Each structure stands twice: as structure tokens, then as C-alpha cells.
Amino acid sequence: TVVFEYGNSGDISTQTPITISAWFGNESNPEMELIAPLPMTFSFVSPDPDDPQLPPERMEFEYTVPDVEEGFYQFKAQIDTKNNNTEDSDTSNNVEILQVCVGDCSQADLRIKDVGLQTLTSEPIEAVAGNIISFTYTIENVGEGEAQGTPSNPLVMFLEVMKCPEGDCSDQGWAKVNESLAVRPGIPGNGGEYNDDSFLRLNWSTAVQDKGFWNVRVVVDGYDSIDESNETNNADFDRSWFRVKSGYFELTEQRPDLIVTNIDEGDGIVYDNEVVTLSVAVSQSEFADIMADNVKMFIQIVDPQGSLGPWMQIDDAKTVGLEGETTFFEYEWTPTKIGSYGIDAYVDRDDEIVEWKEDNNEFEGKVVTVYEKLPDLQISSVDISPVNDEGYAMVGVNSELITTVTNLGVRNMTESEGTKLEVTFYISTPFSSPINFCQDDDGNRMDQFRDEVACELGSDGLSDTAVPSTLEDDGTWGNTFYVNQALAIGESTEVSIPFIFFENSAYRFIVKVDEAQEISEGSGGPELNNEAIKNAYAVSSVDAYVTNLTVDIGDGLAGKECPITFDVGVANIPV
């Protein structure tokens, strides 16, 4: 049964016929079905009675709803459908619409689910301008009907942001920055939820200039694809970032994060009063997301006595890059004391650069040991002379063991050190013994003395005239050669002693310089290289020979005897 009232709220009756019509149909369908027996035309319509107790005019009739799909439809009634009454001052009340439900009219009602601070979350939590920020949330359907999009009307969420300079959003508008994938499954009514991040996750690709404060919201069903019982809560302010977090979403500016990774004094030994280049390495940690310009480096040096030097800037200010790139700051340092120095480095010590972390800019505890500049005596070569054509030493032959001593240190020897320069000789194979020889007080060899007694007496059993007048009457017997020479850096000297090989055998000689360690060459280092070993093999070299061959031919006549004379000898007979 269709019932509606009509009337004339004016002061006079209409001067023209008035037509009344009614329709049934879908709001989205402009060609609604006209309800019979309408339209109905009246010659005029009188004003409504003044007595409020009298009912208005009324029209009632039966109507059968056509076979339509379930959903919401409208009954629409209109008076003066032909617009005959040109004197009507108010036509806004000429139409009355009644919405009715045919069949099951339950509708969805989608919104962001309120779960407190987790209603809307961001990844990462500390967002930096210039990076991609992801937002996650959960949708709930508080309506009675299921919410399901279609390919032509997809269920999609919008991500919208609002700039709030200095925390003030006045006169700012929402701007869409992204939309989700279309949600395919239906979301059941009566509290059904959907939280699949693979569909709902919303990314905001921010720019460096976006730093500052923002409000953020998710608009459910951004394309209004789903008919809902309440469309006003799809972009509910109570579900915005500001309301959920009680504050605005902040995009912080990109920052560097400087760290000192090493202090290097180079590969060589550091000596006192010698310039060394300190190299301080600076890079950035994994937190950094921007290069750092105008970076300054400071160092502080503690001397071996514990005196603390001032912080001082080294090198020029530089730029430090990202992704493991290392920048080096250098300082030419001349240590003046011997011992262990402590060196600390501090990048951006005055905090002129805003960084993610300010407590990781210092490098402490680098120890640099400074050594005294000393000579370094080494046996650079040991040779035997003479040798045969095959390079073997020769048994029974007066031979020499020739040693070259070189100063490979970093300073010249002093005259005092030169007076202490000694070379000692040993044999370990085929027997073990010092190799003794005779030497005068001036370091000259006295080879004519072949034993200790003769050397110390200055006599070989013959008259004293057999001893050269340039030598002392006595000498020193032992295995130490007194060089008595101060070697400059890189300078060498040659020392040789006599030796006779007694048998065919393998020989091993050991030669040492400064065996008594009276010349300082450095603790635990250069002193270990003062020894050399020479291996040799000696073979018999006895050589029979004929020499001084002569023939006396007399008058040269044939048939006469001609004496032939010559000398026969044997060389290299073992002594």
C-alpha cells in the first residue's frame, strides 16, 4: 500500500491544473517505473485548512513491487510534475522520497581498526626524509554486510599526508601519495578484519626536502567502490597519526655519522727526531644516510712521561662519503722522546655537524713506540779465498776467511762505538772451536805466528830479526778481530783472517759482529742479525809440477851429450 499526503501551503488555490505522479526504482536509474494509477491531474488544489485538527489531503493505493534484485530502492512522489503552477514560490517541497529495502539490504561499514598506538604504524620507526616509509594498519568491517570489491570497483586504500610546518596544520590540505593493491578477499561483516600487509602496506617515497612534521591518514575504500551504511568513517580523524600518536609524524633530515676507524704511523719503525706521517682514517657508520662536508679532525698526543698535549686540528677540512668510503687526514709529526706515545683522535670535536650519534667520534688508545736512532751492524757477506775452478776450498793451502761488515742502521756510528767494533770467528764443522789468529795492538794481523806461544812471545824460534820491525815484539792470540772503525750509514768494512783447511770435508764457519753487544743497536731487534754462517767444502789440491827446464847444447855439434836440467816440485802440500 502506497500512501502519501499532499496539499497547498499557499494562501490561494492554484490557477492551473495540478498533476501528481509517483515512481518506484533505483536511485541510480533515471528511468524509474511510474506507479499506476498515477499520474493524476486536479483542476486546482485549494489551500490547506486553517484548522490543524483537520487532516491534509491523502492518496492511498495498492502497488506490487516488481521482480528486482535485492537492495535499496526508492518511492518518489511529486506534485505539479508538469510545472503548471508558475506562482509557486517554493518548489523545494514538491518532491518526497522514501527509501525502502527489497530483500536482504545489509551493508558493510569499513574503517581502520582502533588498536591504540598500533592503529597506524610506520617502518622504520625513526623516519628520515629522502627514504621510503611504510605504513601498516588493520581494516575492520563493523557493518552487517560483507565488503568485497570487484575488478571494475576495486577495494583500495589511499595514503594521504598533510604538511604541518612547525607543527601547525592550519590552511593545509590532504594530499594523496600512494594507494594500496586491490583487496581481493571479501571482508565479513559484524567485526570481520583484514590485515594482510602484502595488500594493505602503503609506501611513501619521501624527498629530502620533505623533512618536518606531517599528519598521516589512511582512507578506506578510496574509490568508494563499496556501498556502506556509513561513509563518514572511511577517513576518520580519530584514526589519523596525530590522534593515534598524540603528536605529528616527523621526517627528520638526513644525517651523517662519523667514526674514526684507525690511526696509522706507517709500516716503518718510528725514530726520535725523525718526521713520520700520522694518517687518521675516517668513515661513516651504517646509520649515515648523507655525506658529511667540512669535516675537521683533531688529535691529542701523550708523551712517554705522561704529559698530555693539547687537542689540535690536523690537515684541512674534508668531505667524508658513504658506503665504506674512507677519508684520510694526515699530520707530519716529529717525536722528540724515546718510548711509547699515546695518540687519540677526535672527528668533529666541536659538534659542528649534526649526526645520528655523537658518542662515537673519538678513537682512543693508539700506541706508537718511538725508538732511538741507532746503527745496525750486520755481516753482509762471508767468502773464502782462494778456491779452485769448481769453487771448492783447497786443503793445505794458506787461505783467508773474508767477512764484510755493514752498518745498515739509521745513524752513523760514533768514534766511541768504532773502538768497540769487533768481529769474532768460529768453526762448528768438522770440529767445533774458535778460529784463533795473532793480531797486534793496532789490529794488524801477524800471520807469521802460527801458535799462541809464538804470538805472545813475538818469536818463531828464530832470531828477533825475523820479526818485521814494523810489528810489536808480541801480539794478541784469539778469535776476535778488533776493527777499530766507526761506520757511517751504509758503509762497509772488510775483515779477513788466515785459515788452512786440513782435510777433505764440509766446513761450517760462524762469524759474529759485536758479539759482546757493547754497541747498542736496539732492544730485541737489530741485535739478532749480527751473525752469519758460511758453509764450504774443501778438497785436496796437491799439485806436482815441473819447472825451470834448461838444455846445455854446448857447441851445438851432433853426437855430443847435452845436459838437460829441470826442477820437480809438489804444490799445496798440507802444512
Describe the overall structure:
By secondary structure, the chain is mainly β. It has 4 domains: 2-102, Immunoglobulin-like (Sandwich), CATH 2.60.40; 110-251, Sandwich (Immunoglobulin-like), CATH 2.60.40.10; 258-371, Immunoglobulins (Immunoglobulin-like); 377-541, Immunoglobulins (Immunoglobulin-like, Sandwich). It contains 4 helices and 38 strands. Strands 27, 29, 30, 33, 35 and 36 form a 6-stranded mixed beta sheet that branches. The longest helix has 6 residues, at 452-457. The protein is rod-shaped, with a radius of gyration of 57 Å. The termini are far apart. The model is unreliable at 461-472 (pLDDT under 50). Pfam families: CARDB (PF07705). Residues 324-364 form the CARDB domain. This is CARDB domain-containing protein.
Task: Provide the fold topology.
Blueprint (H helix, E strand, L loop, with lengths): L1 E5 L11 E8 L7 E2 L5 E3 L14 E5 L9 E9 L15 E8 L7 E3 L8 E3 L8 E5 L2 E3 L16 E6 L11 E5 L12 E3 L2 H4 L1 E4 L6 E8 L21 H5 L3 E3 L6 E7 L5 E2 L4 E9 L7 E11 L9 E9 L6 E7 L5 E9 L14 E10 L5 E9 L7 E3 L2 E10 L7 H4 L3 E8 L3 E2 L2 E3 L12 H6 L18 E3 L1 E3 L9 E9 L4 E9 L17 E10 L2 E9 L12 E8 L4
Parallel strand pairs: 19-25, 27-36
Antiparallel strand pairs: 1-5, 2-3, 2-4, 2-6, 6-7, 8-11, 9-10, 10-15, 11-14, 12-13, 12-16, 16-17, 18-20, 20-23, 21-22, 21-24, 24-25, 26-28, 28-34, 29-30, 29-33, 29-35, 31-32, 35-36, 37-38
